[in-house]
Amino acid sequence: MRSNECRPRTTWPLRTTSAGWPGLKRCWWRRGCWHVSEPRFRPGSRVRTTVVDPPHHTRVPRYVRGRVGEVVEFQGRYPLPDDRAQQLPDSRIEPVYAVRFAARDLWGDGSHDVTVDLWESYLTEEP
């Protein structure tokens, strides 16, 4: 295998996610290559959102930046909106998760939950 060839971590056939989407991830070794990979976070995982405020479009709402939430569901893989907003020719494809936050943690009061769809690069694992 040459150094620029794909090195998939799992084998075929493609498995599908709970949402019915192929578990595909863009290969970092070779452009245009796809292979199977597992989502980084599982339902019930505690995660913290990034605090970054980029000069371009992002899908991280300001009210959840830096907050801790719980992954509810893996929703499949989609192009990263940040890359598309910058008109990059080859947008990254990332896992998207439904993440639940307590309203009182976001705004100081409220007995309900707020669920936001967030891409994997916006999240870090919270111990």
TrEMBL record:
InterPro entries: CN_hydtase_beta_dom_C, Elect_transpt_acc-like_dom_sf. Residues 37-124 form the Nitrile hydratase beta subunit domain. It holds the Pfam family NHase_beta_C. It comes from the Bacteria. This is Nitrile hydratase subunit beta.
